[in-house]
Write a structure and sequence with these properties.
189 residues; alpha+beta; Jelly Rolls; 9 helices
């Protein structure tokens, strides 16, 4: 497990060195090449990942078969198909690497063992579940209550590196606008 994950956990929650060291055997490293999948729609998501380096994109297919991006996971973020991971059922979404991505991963069984044996890890799990819920609520609010221009300006402010690293069609999908609308907004700015 990396120093980056240790630092991220310390910034977010309280974890002792002893608890962190005890958890090391439960984690492993994984690299996903650009365009490869962490999980594909229809498969059971067996891992939760911390993004060490790189960038992941979570998306689902709508009724027309179009990819709808709803999340980007850059460095220092967690990624999984939450419903699939928690329930160990087929995923309704896909998670794909936008660029080569290095991950620290833990499988479902090992995470449950950590939760059963460590109050600190159980508390960390709770904090990250709360953060994920807040993100999803904010994202739904943004999609429904902000203009296309406001959505783009928010992304520029909150996650400017995404603009340079991600194809415009994925950004447009994330913002809930067409590529044409996004191009027009970018020209205006």
């Amino acid at each position: 497990m990396s120093d980056r994950l240790r630092k991220h956990l310390r910034e977010t929650a309280t974890i002792s060195d002893v608890e962190f060291e005890k958890a090391l055997p439960y984690f492993s490293n994984k690299t996903i090449g650009k365009g490869e999948y962490f999980v594909k729609q229809g498969a059971v998501c067996k891992y939760m990942a911390f993004v060490e380096e790189g960038l992941l994109r979570s998306y689902f297919l709508n009724e027309k078969g179009e990819e709808i991006t709803f999340c980007f996971e850059p460095e220092n973020s967690f990624s999984t198909s939450y419903k699939s991971f928690i329930l160990q059922c087929p995923s309704q979404l896909s998670i794909q690497a936008i660029e080569e991505t290095k991950l620290t991963v833990i499988n479902h069984q090992n995470l449950q063992k950590l939760y059963e044996t460590s109050y600190q890890w159980l508390r960390i799990g709770k904090l990250f579940a709360e953060k994920e819920y807040i993100f999803l609520e904010q994202y739904a609010s943004m999609l429904n209550n902000e203009s296309a221009k406001e959505k783009y300006l928010r992304l520029l402010k909150e996650n400017p590196s995404i603009i340079q690293r991600v194809k415009l069609k994925y950004i447009a999908s994330f913002l809930g606008v067409t590529s044409r609308t996004l191009s027009r907004i970018r020209k205006e700015l």
